[in-house]
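Sequence in, structure out. Go.
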Amino acid sequence: MYRKLITNDIKKSRLISITITVFILLASLLTSLAAMLSVSLFTAVDGMMEHAKTPHFLQMHSGKIDTQQLSNFAKTQGNVEDLQITPFLNIEGAEIVIEKTPLADSIQDNGLSVQSERFDFLLGLNGNIIYPAEGEIYVPLYYMKSGQANLDDSVVIHGVSFTVAGFLRDSQMNASMISSKRFLVNATDFERLREFGKLESLIEFRLTDPSSVSSFEAAYLSAGLPANGPPAITYSLFKMANAIDDGIMIAVLILISVLVIVVNFLCIRFTLLAKIEEDYREIGMLKAIGLTPRRIKQLYLAKYSALAGVACAAGFVCSIPAKEPFLTNIRLYMGEPGDAHLGIVLGMLGAMLIFFVVILYVESILRRFKRISAAEAIRFGAPQEKSKAARAFGLSVSRTRSPNIFLGYKDVMLRKRLYITMLLVLVISSFMMIVPQNIYNTISQRSFMTYMGVGECDMRIDIQQTDNIIAKAEEIASFMAQDSDIEEYTVLTSYLFDMPTEDSSVGKLKVELGDHSVFPIAYSAGIAPQSSAEIAVSKFVAEDLGKSLDDIIVLIVDGQEKPFTICGIYSDITNGGKTAKAVFDIGDGSVLWSILPVKLQSGVNADEKAAQYKGHFPDVKAANIDAYINQTFGGITQAVQKVSYAAIAAAATLTMLVTLLFMKMLLTKDRYSIAVLKTLGFKTSEIRLQYLSRAFAVLIAGILIGTILANTLGELVGAGLIAAFGASTFQFVVNPMFAYLFSPIFMAVCVGLATRLSVSGISTLKISEYIKE
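Output:
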């Protein structure tokens, strides 16, 4: 019996049945897709890092190394599984020429490596450990993705020619955010070029218990082992760096999916209410012949269970091929995701969850059958609404010239409850359209760097891996003082200090000294250091030490212990995120590097100025800050931009579809009222104008609320996503043209078109059919 009733009902209301099925299918597809993509990303990252045997602890070091000292230390640590020292030959970007194009403008620290012996393997695109022959070179994926290198291209390094034999996956340096990149060459070629580069060593450890890497790092630093380089990087930071590009994209996609799912359930409500309105007289007849509300509800539940079952199954099946475009980048950088069965199982569970939620949701809506009067349903064919007369809102006191616009607005005011669902959909659509764009606009702006521990400037000069860094910084600063194109600059020098801890061990802390007021950064708490007794620390340092504002940190400065009060906490993505900033003077210390941020005079070309300083000082790095940001965050911003465009398309589609459905439901509900208006002499065009004014009244409220929420609640949502960067606080950079002009106009066009299409049937409505005695 149920099968015949379901089949007949679907044939009778094909449009509504198809619409409900599509909505449930979308909800199932997005839920399954989010589950499978999340599993794919993290299993792919884990698989690549396990295959490459990524070190659990890495310390870069410039200078001589006592290998026996390191070996003795490893033996005293029961947690060490293996130790390896890998050479990294740093080569100036201008000396690496790919197809006659040098990497002079690259902000990356490019270098040559040979394949590791025991772990930290460099992998080919097929996942195998690669061993280049003489004259061959394997190039980082970063340069293939940016279009700077292709297979069989010629690469010349200091006059030595190579052929690009392939591209490599580097579990340490894959991500664009990591500022170093390794080129893989044969050991013979490496020795030929050794004299032309600056040799660094990657001191790498594999641990039997990776979870205890923090205590191992403390022991390493306390032992005074080689650490003339950036702070140590651990396995968890490598994992985060590998996942961040696609992780941010998937996170924004999940945000959009959640919003779409919410809208889909609201749409199911629309269509179901429209169906109940359409069947109102039949429901009354069923009650009149003795069927209980429970039995009538079972008839509808049988239909929607069948539709939901088919839609959820189809959504899950569709999610399998739909995930492929999103996996392209993951497969390129990490290889095939592992444990595909787990992703499929979780995707299936997601589709089943949607099925049960839909059934519960439909069941809650169908409870209104208890309130339907059989006599009223048979007589009127639609529910009769009761509303209080709005005496203070009469046509006589209205300032609106058009009575039809006034009547449309008045209907919204009198039946607020009816329009709330459409209002919610428009609020969500506006929110969905604006928030991803705000996230993209924020991370693509130059000012975003201030939330990452770097002051906003026009040009940046880095001095490292050179003799006498202090003297070189002073030389460049003196040159800048005579440069009329430079408006402002400062010298910030990083030192490595011993830091006694509460457990009597001695840690290390990288502290950047200089005037931090010239190019200020954003602080999540507190302010920049003002006196020599204050220090600002990064979020990761504060968390590791369990410190907060006004707590004390002790450093060994010029051989003496000196206490500093924490005055500020900030986010940082540089050097593993463990840094500090202070303004005290120092007589002597372990210098790591210096940077000179520069603000140029108005109209000065930053690229040309950077090239000028590269020519004057060939042993330093000078870069236009826009190029620096693009090369560091380019992959992420492009991914978020694509997702934001998808959000605009989804919001526009949902806005049009929901408006169509809502207006259809409204016309079904208002058949009697429309017939009365026609009897009173209202033209079809005038009645259409009333419905257009209703739609735009709700639209205006939806856009206002959605825009406010996008810039308040949306900022909190965006903060949760961008926290993956390491940014603990930030403010949206809103594009006013998009948020306040394009978005409202675009939504108005969608609502206008959908309303015009949905009310086109008014002209065919027959007065005699809907006016009853």
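Check: Residues 625-669 form the longest helix (45 residues). Residues 64-212 form one domain.
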